[in-house]
């Protein structure tokens, strides 16, 4: 029987570019095909090898000779462990480290010369996402002794040191460059036979949603009067539903909850967050704000029809493409809603569970991102206020289930 092929994957990229998320996604999915994958993370070796704190930015200063030597030794240990894994039962060894300098990559190619190496370079140039990712990193235990501002400063300084020595992985034989926010391959050059590459490429480009709970806020003051727009809060009944939602999810770890910036979705999240202090991170995104109804803001549908019958008729004729004067339409809000989804998926990384609390039109657009619906049907998708969609979209499982809470 032919011996199974072996492969090293070396991640490349500045800190907080999504490298570890990509590595974990490759591992979890390749293992479903009985490919044995090991992740070898320099940070883990560092925490094991170096007693005390290595969160100080100075540790990453290339001109700090003492720590530079230590970091070389850490890399060498990681390389040796990856090599041992492939010499034994492993098929794919992923070296999860920055590997941003040509010199470091030369060391990798020199040491890992018994099997092909694929370099996966992760890029995310979005300043907002970077700021949010850095904020997430500063919550790691290694920054526990610093306040948020000091931890952020230290981490940004660390990124600065890496930026200084960064050289795009253009000199290597096999490289795929990935935009990690959009799961898009920006460039690739594969010279020699890279085992499993077809599968890897496919995984790099696919979204991976383990369990997304898509919730709409419960009854708001405006809902009672059938009014559009505004920023009203939940009614008494709505607040009770918010508690029901929180009770329904007791026992489900929810590390990330995303809402819009509007009062009704924030109030819907409140009981959940209150009962999970320190366990759930909440991000309020304007990308998830309800459709902007422009000059119709605050009107009821009846008032809209009475005051502007032509506008009302035009909307009924082509609801998807209709745009409220001074506001948005379904078609024109698509871009920002999809961006919100990408942001949420990026930030929640490999979390098993996540929740988005949105609005009627926004949730329709989010669903349309996952479901192939004719555009003209999207504005009519039923979005109840006492049920949520449970969405799973992986390579092996697709689930869309409407559940009561
Ligand atoms: O009525 C609640 C609401 O969220 C409004 O704020 C929004 O304009 C509307 O739903 C969107 O749904 P439709 O496009 O069906 O009017």
From TrEMBL:
The keyword ATP-binding applies. GO terms for biological process: fructose 2,6-bisphosphate metabolic process; fructose metabolic process. One of its GO terms (molecular function) is 6-phosphofructo-2-kinase activity. The active site is at 217 (tele-phosphohistidine intermediate), 290 (proton donor/acceptor). One of its GO terms (cellular component) is cytosol. Gene3D superfamilies: P-loop containing nucleotide triphosphate hydrolases, Phosphoglycerate mutase-like. The keyword ATP-binding applies. Residues 5-174 form the 6-phosphofructo-2-kinase domain. Substrate binds at residues 216-223, 264. Keywords: ATP-binding, Nucleotide-binding. This is AAA family ATPase. The lineage of its organism: Bacteria, Pseudomonadati, Thermodesulfobacteriota, Desulfovibrionia, Desulfovibrionales.
